[in-house]
Amino acid sequence: YQRRVREQRSIEKMVKQNRFASTEGGVAVGLRRGHKVTKRTPKAKPSATKGKSTKRTLFVRSLVREISGYAPYEKRMIELLRNELDKRALRFGKKRLGSHQRGKKKREEMSGVIRAMRSQK
Q: What 3-state DSSP class applies to 71?
């Protein structure tokens, strides 16, 4: 029942939006009814760039990582990954970081660190 109500509301919303303007139509009835208008392409909002890493932040993070090193739990994760205990490393990361997604991300980061160490040698 709720799904039907939601669908009905979305249809009503679409009808309201399409009541007066049409990009191609210019006819009185039908799907393409309404006044002929040109479609606007607004400028991208600054909020669209939220979360994007800049060169400066990446540099600062790498510098902090270089100076401060790794946290004890990160060292343990690296050790687990070296011993090919990927699943155990994920479980450990999940427990320390609080969620599955964060654990997976951290495991990937730490395996990247190991790869970088191997390529330097």
A: coil
Quick count: other Cβ atoms within 10 Å of Cβ 107? Answer: 22
- Amino acid identity at 69: G
Residue 85 — pLDDT band, cuts 50, 70, 90?
very high
Please give the DSSP secondary-structure letter assigned to residue 47.
G
What pTM did the predictor assign? 0.59
Rounded Cα distance, 56 and 13, in Å = 44
10 Å CB burial of residue 103 (0-12, 13-18, 19+) is buried
- Dihedral angle over CA of 77, 71, 104, 53, nearest 10: -140
Give the whole-angstrom CA distance, residue 24 versus residue 33. 9
Distance separating alpha carbons of residues 71 and 82, to the nearest angstrom: 17
Tell me if 97 sits within 8 A of 103, measured CB to CB: yes
**60 contacts 76 by C-beta, under 8 angstroms:** no
* pLDDT one-digit tens code per residue, 39-77: 888 898 989 888 889 999 999 999 999 999 999 999 999
